Amino acid sequence: MFRSALMARAPEADDRKPRRAVARGAATFAVIAVLLSSPFAYARPAPDGFADLAEKVTPAVVNISTTQNVDRAPGRLPQFPFPPGSPFEEFMKRFFDQQNFPSGPAKMTALGSGFIIDASGYVVTNNHVVGEADRIDATLTDGRKFDAKIIGRDEKTDLALLKINSDEPLPFVEFGDSDRARVGDWVMAVGNPFGLGGTVTAGIISARGRDIRSGPYDDFLQIDAAINRGNSGGPIFGMDGQVLGVNTAIYSPNGGSVGIGFAIPASIAKSVIGELREHGRVDRGWLGVQIQEVTPEIASALGLDTTKGALVSAVNPDGPAAKAGIRQGDVIVAVGEHEIDRLKDLPLLIANRKAGEEIAITVWRGGDKRELQATIGNMPKDQVARAGSGPGKGPEAGELGLALAPLTPELRQRFGLGENVTGVVVTAVGPDSPAAEIGMRPGDVVLKVNQQAVTGPQQIAEQVKKAREAGRNSVMLLVVRGDVQRFVAVPLGKA
After folding, report:
1. What span, in angstroms and rounded, lies between the C-alpha atoms of 395 and 414?
2. What is the pLDDT of residues 190-215, one digit of tens each?
3. Which residues are catalytic?
4. Phi, psi (5° rounding) for residue 287?
5. Integer Cα distance of 332 and 326 in angstroms
6. What's the rounded Cα separation, in Å, for the pair 155 and 351?
7. How many other C-beta atoms are found inside a 10 Å radius of the C-beta of residue 494?
8. H/E element, 393
9. Which residue in 27, 87, 102, 237 has its CB near the most CB atoms, within 10 A?
10. CA-CA distance, 267 to 272, in Å (whole number)?
């Protein structure tokens, strides 16, 4: 009976076993399907190593050394290869202070990096690496050394294109798509730190779109791969061996790497280098405006529900913007189909347009959006679109902490104001007032309040009253200091 009972129960047990297996398999499949469908679940694995990548790309990376002939003035010290502020630099300064260091002709040298972008020998590097050099040498990793000549330089993006000549095709690398690079992606840098020659370091992209205030087109990739002096002009590579950026700067309190380096994205470098190769210079689009950030206070004063966009603080009277009808106080919110999310978006978008191109400019004016048609101009030589940061916080007349007066000959003389200046002059600023917090000072002249021109303190008070009645939390002043105009948003205190 015992055996019969076992035999009788066996088929039931066998039937359940496959069902459980099927159930477990279905559950596993469902989990895998969920993981694969989730954008957060999948992560690229860390590479086993960088040796294959390094072997592939380093032949195209060059060490650059430059020599410049200078006429050293008496008492001027030579350049030291030590980090600024280091004990070595201070020691050498004291040493040469005690010597009669000769003046007259001398040679200055500098070191950097670069990379070849085609087999004929075009080399990309930083503008600050080559500068006004009288001689440039490029040395490959196999020891071959070439004279290099400058094809073109672009100070605004700190890029330069060189040319070396070889009897045989040279190894080269290509630009990749930096727009697809993500924070956290692996990258590898190759360069000539401290003149040591081909050196490879690795890390990740730490951030995108960094503005380090080095120029009007800052849009850097931040990386944590070790970057040091001499790496300037060298490439950072993605794991596919394509160039994602050009190393150009580091943040460092001691002159050495602390894991914060900045690279010009390939998306910018590729177009600039293409212009240099074709024309020897970079022609940029020009709109002819000064812009500043839209702060929460300015947004409130203008009735905007967002801080996106670029506030026009001045318009070149002969520029494309003026001809298109763009006015001081407009907020440019879009260029064509591209919205202006950050202040830096506008200079970048305009610079990439060709002179003569028709483009729609969407502005916020008087509580509404309107579309204007502008014809992009060619940026005048040495002119940079100025973007003022403007104060971040701000306030009115009495309650704003400002003592105001009409412009009189005595006040013009006191504050050095020309006859062409109109408006209301600030004669005093309360030390703990909202006006003091935003940096206003005696001698500033208020030209407009909430887009309305003012000539007396009473008009300012009336505009403040209107803003309060309209439920605004701030008023916007157009202020001139020296030859610079800027908007400041002034929070209104409680009535």
Report:
1. 25
2. 998 887 878 999 999 999 988 776 66
3. 128, 158, 232
4. -110, -30
5. 9
6. 14
7. 5
8. none
9. 237
10. 9
